[in-house]
Write a structure and sequence with these properties.
2 domains; BirA Bifunctional Protein, domain 2; single chain; alpha+beta; 3-stranded antiparallel beta sheet; 342 residues; 7-stranded mixed beta sheet; 10 strands; 11 helices
Length: 342
């Protein structure tokens, strides 16, 4: 027993003198004292040589020694973790690894460009939900149930509740703005929309739109045309050719579609313009009186115009892209071309 006491005292002095400046030295200490073949485990084996009447006293002594060794280990580990490394294995004078520069998506670039042009005319931006109820997506827009024009939309319905749909246009945001009753209204509504269409070079099952709405007293079709002329000249240049064609939309009357010359082929004809030399970029018209009434606006006092365009198609014309699917494939080789366009 006396020999054991002397041995433990000697070991404690050695432990107390132990020091470590890095993780390797801490691990060496653990292996030497606390490992499976370490000193603590070896001295614990001396219990078999202690007289039976001394085993209780020896057990307490050995447990205290083990705790002493473990406490020193925790102390060394904490000290080495907070230690400041003064040596480096690398040459810090070498230049760092280059970080690749990201770029804005071309659809985002075009959206920002469109919004900035109309903001110069006083249009503010409004947004709304992509999952809409039937009233805001159809009913309030002069499209009652079983109206044949609903077939034009190729709608994605929510299976659990057919009264809810993935919005087919951002016109639903126009309804939400008109329902607020704060007149006059001069708003842009950008966002993603969904239609059950065949994916091709010219169409996709989801795409992006920007719609505009202007409601006030004495708003005319001439105001609509001049607004859109300004937009096209700012977007595509003063030399671009424009034409309006009569059209039909249930929520506007009269209605029109606006075409510009195809920049892909220069008007000679290609798969984007269907060999016509013209590309339709937006639909427009005067807001239907029924739509105003549905939103609590007096159609005898107020008039307004609305327009809507996809973002991908103007982006195709602006950047010379000949396949709409490239915008959603996330091909880095394609996206890197727009780094300088930020």
């Amino acid at each position: 027993m006396e020999q054991l006491l002397k041995q433990i005292d000697a070991y404690k002095q050695e432990i107390n003198a132990s020091a470590a400046t890095d993780e390797k030295q801490v691990e060496d200490y653990r292996i030497k004292w606390l490992g499976t073949k370490g000193i603590v485990k070896a001295i614990m084996g001396e219990m078999k040589n202690v007289a039976p009447e001394k085993k209780k006293e020896a057990g307490q002594l050995l447990n205290e020694f083990k705790q002493y060794a473990e406490a020193k280990y925790e102390e060394l580990k904490a000290a080495s973790t907070g230690a400041v490394q003064t040596g480096f294995s690398m040459d810090i004078s070498l230049p760092g690894d280059p970080m690749p520069l990201g770029s804005r998506h071309p659809v985002t670039l075009m959206r920002n460009r469109i919004v900035s042009i109309f903001q110069r005319l006083g249009f503010a931006v409004a947004e709304g939900p992509e999952i809409e109820d039937d009233w805001h997506n159809f009913g309030a827009l002069n499209l009652p149930a079983h109206h044949p024009a609903r077939d034009m939309q190729d709608t994605f319905y929510i299976q659990q509740n057919p009264d809810w749909v993935l919005r087919t246009h951002t016109s639903s945001v126009q309804i939400r703005e008109m329902e607020k009753g704060k007149l006059p209204i001069r708003m842009l509504m950008p966002g993603r929309v969904y239609r059950n269409e065949t994916v091709s070079a010219r169409s996709h099952c989801f795409f992006h739109q920007v719609e505009g709405l202007y409601i006030d007293e004495n708003v005319s079709f001439a105001d609509l045309k001049q607004t859109l002329y300004f937009f096209v000249k700012e977007m595509y240049g003063k030399d671009v050719k424009v034409r309006f064609r009569p059209s039909y939309f249930p929520f506007t009357e009269p209605s029109a579609e606006m075409d510009v010359t195809c920049f892909i082929c220069g008007g000679s004809g290609c798969n984007i313009c269907k060999k016509t030399g013209w590309v339709e970029i937006l639909g427009c018209g005067m807001v239907h009186p029924n739509v105003l009434s549905n939103c609590g606006i007096d159609p005898n006092k107020y008039t307004g115009f609305a327009f809507g365009m996809g973002i991908e198609r103007p982006a195709m014309l602006k950047y010379g892209v000949n396949d709409l699917r490239l915008f959603s494939e996330n091909d880095v080789r394609f996206l890197k071309q727009f780094t300088s366009a930020i």
